[in-house]
Amino acid sequence: MDVQNELEKMGLKLGEVEKYIEDMGYFKGKADAVVLAKSTEDVARVVKFANEREIPIIPWGRGTSVTGAVTPIKGGIIIDLSSMNRIIDFSDEDWIVHVEAGAILDEINAFLRPRGFFFPPDPASSFMCSIGGATSEGSGGMHCVKYGTMKDWVLAMKVVLPDGSTVTVGEPLHKNRVGYDLTHLMIGSEGTLGVITEVWLKVVPIPGYKIKRVLTFFDSEEDIGRTIINLRKNRVQPEIAEYMDLKVLEAVKSSFNIETHGVGALLIDVPEFEIEKLNLSLSNPSFVKVADSEEEKEELYKARSYAYLAVKTLAKYAMSEDVVVPISKLPKVFKKVRELEEKYGMKCPMVGHIGDGNLHPIILYDDASKDRAESFFRELCIYVIDEGGSVTGEHGVGIQKREMAIRQIEEHNGRPLLDLMKEIKLVFDKKKIMNPYKQVV
Questions:
Q1: SS3 for 161-201, per residue?
Q2: CB-based burial, 281-299: b 16+ in 10 Å, e otherwise
Q3: Ramachandran class of 292: left when φ > 0, alpha when ψ lies in -120 to 50, beta otherwise
Q4: 148, 168, 152: which is closest to 160 by C-alpha?
Q5: pLDDT at 1
């Protein structure tokens, strides 16, 4: 059967397959066809067609995954939702915005800002990632230390199920306790249960108080971890609390006006009335820079946002980790990463949403050192699991972390929970066509 011909006969627009077989994490696959969906009806027709023929379906937002979550493993039909990018409705009374899955996060905030509102989750790829992808991955970002991740902001969504039927899960309400919580089941499911086509999001007013943005440098990573612990002990709630080590700072300073000192820096936003408590929380800072203007604040924010893209230029490949540990164990994780750098003879620049214990070590490698990079990755994941942490906080599981995610569930929660997850998958997707070989199912 010629899948592309069959889809074209249905009046669907197709894309070039070669543009869709690799994500930003260098995970490659192969696909039989790419459908450029224009509507939920298009998506439903494709999914029904695939279900009848037991062809895999892979939802695609903007391809910004770094874990292989959008990579077709053994062929199938990719559904590109990027053209479904409308902002359908907004209410400044209900504080809810209704958007299609292909809408880009920054464009949603550009729409909200002049109306006095914003949508807090802001992954580093917010200038290019879609709301459907962010929902499917359960993404976070710099503001998650205060506002949480996607799971805290999605109220409802329209989903095309594996049989081609369309349902709305959840309610566009700020409170709803009817039935099982399928909304949060879909968030972070990585397209393994259905295709998200529309989303209803909570939004909040832009804060009326003045924010101070501080870039603080340190001579030891232990002091960096200790500073985050001190913020907790001193009851300081940052708006953002981000880490960039010296390798990252050096990578971004050619594009952004940013200084470099010591071993790394914390980028912290606090309300102006909390600045003294922030200063008291800093553990042996070597240099402190307070942004003097809105332009300088934006420059520092962009430097952190583009850090991963800047670091990727330092080597042929970059393997991004996404580990989460209890705040109290941050100093130990810093030490472990540097021990593994030395053990494997590899460079590992590190960034992260350190305020909630989420770090992104980025292992740099080439073709000759790929096996060592994978051993580095595996050993760090096992260490984090043993320390009571998680192998992913916001990047998702995809292909990259599937083995380690299964290990984490078995060790922390027990095999029966993993079995229950597999049973849930079959309730939704009896033919196992939805983004196969991803997640833990």
A1: CCCCCEEEEECCCCCCCCCCCHHHHHCCCCCCCCEEEEEEE
A2: bbbebeeebebeeeebbeb
A3: alpha
A4: 168
A5: 66
Helices (H), 54-202: 105-112, 131-137, 144-147, 182-186
> Cα-atom radius of gyration of the chain, to the nearest Å?
22
- Rounded (5°) CA angle 341-409-27: 55
Average pLDDT of the chain, as a whole number: 96
Alpha carbons within 13 A on the beta-carbon side of 71: 21
- Asked if residue 414 lies in contact with residue 175, where contact means CB atoms within 8 angstroms, the answer is no
pLDDT in tens, 265-324: 999 999 999 999 999 999 999 999 999 899 999 999 999 999 999 999 999 999 999 999
Amino acid (1-letter code) at residue 38: K
Nearest in space to 26 (alpha carbons), one of 365, 375, 360, 393: 365
Instruction: Evaluate whether 121 touches 144 at the Cβ level (below 8 Å).
Output: yes
Element (H, E) at 343: helix 330-344
The residue whose two tokens read 């959840």 is 170
What pLDDT does 259 receive?
85
Residue 65 pLDDT greater than 90, yes or no: yes
Domains of the chain: 3-80 (3.30.43.10), 87-205 (3.30.465.10), 208-314 (3.30.70.2190), 316-433 (3.30.70.2740)
Q: Output the CA torsion sign for 335, 337, 338, 344.
A: positive
C-alpha distance from residue 256 to each of 48, 293, 296, 304, 396 (Å): 48, 15, 10, 10, 29
Number of helices (H), then strands (E), in the chain: 15, 18
Query: What average pLDDT does this structure show over 206-214?
Result: 95
* Alpha-carbon gap, residue 250 to 268, rounded angstroms: 19
